[in-house]
Structure formats: structure tokens, C-alpha cells
Amino acid sequence: MRGQGRPPERDGKIMSPAESPDPASTNDLRITGFQPLIPPGELRAALPLDVESARLVRESRQAVRGVLSGEDDRLLLVVGPCSVHDPVAAHEYAQRLSEAIAPLRDDLCVVMRVYFEKPRTKLGWKGLINDPDMDGTHDVQRGLRMARTVLLDVLATGLPVACEFLEPTSPQYIADTVTWGAIGARTPESQVHRQLASGLSMPVGFKNATDGDVQPAIDGCYTAAGSHVFFGIDDEGRGSIVSTAGNPDCHIVLRGGRGGPNYRSEDVRDALGLLDKAEMPRRLVIDASHDNSGKDHIRQAAVVREIAEQVARGESGIAGLMMESFLAEGRQQPGPRETLTYGQSVTDACIGWPETERLLGELAAAVRSRREAVRTAA
Ligand SMILES: O=C[C@H](O)[C@H](O)COP(=O)(O)O
Ligand SMILES: C=C(OP(=O)(O)O)C(=O)O
After folding, report:
1. Where are the stretches annotated Disordered (predicted)?
2. Nearest in space to 231 (alpha carbons), one of 283, 174, 173, 192
3. How far, in Å, from the CA of 192 to the mean position of ligand 1?
């Protein structure tokens, strides 16, 4: 590690070269700290998935697979806050959503967005796991515990959950609770994330890249379907060589790009054409948020309605839809929890609850119309 002898210590912690420069050292010169992380198996044992929730995860993964393959003619709906920053508000949202979708289950296969890892365009709050107190103290151990507690709590309301996976080792701590995973728009081309997806136990959506290019997402699905060998950690937290079997349940997600949106029927047709060329199933998910709505929650609701119209007209390539929704509409700057508006996003602007409820009903109606359109055409 360092030049000669024992590395210097302060308060029982090994000091990094950045804290105690050693002119002879060539290593870790810009690392300012290492803190041991709880082993994944230990966190899972401390906050276990109960039998009922494990059944929910298994069955909902199977349901999502059915919708993605087209065997199940419902619409997959991944809906919830852009990010979770307040476990209490996340719980209230989950309870409301769980009640609201009960009568719509024949038409919608709903998974709640419970996102803890936020990829940033430049700088910004990186989510509850990375900085649970939103104040730069980065208590990651606490963040992991809080995240897992929220996941178990949402499952207890009867709702399956969706997460984006960003840190390559974080799934070891939480993925057993997750029904649908996302590889976000900043990472579909990343080999690390493609390898990661190849070992995940749930269906995974690869987003198109931030420039709007859909091909990296298609290549991501293809790559993740294969087996891989890469660096990771095991349940004890030991650095490991990880081997995976490959994930056959990957699909693309259209989320718009710098050049504009890609949710319209001509964009869907183009994307399905690319899937044909890649000899992949003609099924995709559309995210109504992000560059499909310019991160404007009012526009997002209009985009959801335009996608619902395509579904109602019989577009069978649209397997699912993503929507960012929370209790209060809009967004606010992250900050100390007690200063924030309850139930409002601290990342992207979200559709508020009353509009969300209306959209759920409209989407279910669109699915019923699609069923009818398909029957009539047959
Ligand atoms: O979904 C959330 C955001 O779109 C994503 O984290 C990027 O946010 P940023 O562009 O504000 O950094
Ligand atoms: C970051 C997200 O989306 P995207 O990767 O499409 O920007 C998200 O859904 O939280």
C-alpha cells in the first residue's frame, strides 16, 4: 500500500495518503477514506424478507414476465416517486397506491417505484442510500438499513417494488425484495451494468441513452442475456469473482433523449423495427417522464394520456409504462427533512396524487379498449 512500515493511524482508523501524504507512495493518493461496510448477508439477516413478501416478489416477477412476453395482456405500470427521501411519505404513498389499484388488477400490473440510487447528470443528491440525511454526511450504513426497511414496508402493503441499480454491489443488499429493475439512461452502455443485469433475479429494463439512441439499450439486453464473469462481493462482503447465468428477461425502455421525446407512435414503430433487426421480442416499455416530458410533471400527465391512446388503439408493442408520481405534485430542493414539503419529490417533478388516481383509471380503460381492438381484429 504505502512506502515503508505500518500505515499511520488516527483515532484507530488507517489514514489515507490524501490525509497524510507519503512522498514515496504511488497508491490511493486521492482516496480520503475507507470504511468497512456491513456484509450483505448480515443486513439481509437483520432485516429479513418474510415468507409472505417473498411469495409476493416471486409471483409478481412471474406476472411481470408474463406481461413483458405478451402472454398476459395487461399493461405493466411502474409508478411512484422519482426518489424516496422520506420513509413515512413512501409508506403513505404505497398504502394509497395499493388501495387505488385493487379494482384495476385485471388491467394493470402495478409495481411501485422505490428508487434509492440516483444517477446525476452532473452533481446532486445521489439518493437515500448514499446520503440518507441529505446533508453531505453520507451515512451509507444507515442509508442501506433505511432503504431495506422501506422496501420491506412497501412489500407489506401488498405492492411489488422497482429500483434502479447503480452501484454494482448494492443489489446484494436489496435485490431479493425487487420485482423489476432498471438500468438507467446514463449506464445502458456500461459493461459493469450489463454484467450486473446478467445476474439479477428479476426482469430488467434498459433505458435508451441520454442522447436518445435506443441501440445501447438493445445491445444492453443482448449482452445481459449472456453469462459473465466479473468482480463483485459475496454475502460476507468478500471481494469475489462472480459468475452469472444471464438474464433472459431484459427489455428496452424509451425515455426520450436530448433531441426530444420518443414516445409517439412513429418512435414506437422505429424502436420495434430495431428490435426486429436484433431478433428480439417486439415489446417495450415507455417512460412518460424524463426527456419524454422535459421533466415537467404537467406535460408528463399529457404524455401518459397520449401513450394510453396508442394502447387503446391496439398497439401491442407497448408492454408497459413508467410514471413519476408522489403525494404532492412538483418538486423541491433537497434539504433537512423537517424543512421539506411532505410527500413532494426532491429530485424530478412528480405528478400529484389526485391526477395519478385519474391516470390509473384511464390507463386501465385503455387496456380494456386494446383487448377489444385485438378481439375485433382477430
Ligand atoms: O430521475 C432522476 C433524474 O432525472 C436523474 O437522477 C438525473 O437528474 P439530474 O439531471 O437532475 O442530475
Ligand atoms: C434516473 C432515472 O431515469 P433515466 O435513467 O431515464 O434518466 C430514473 O428513472 O430515476
Report:
1. 1-29
2. 192
3. 20
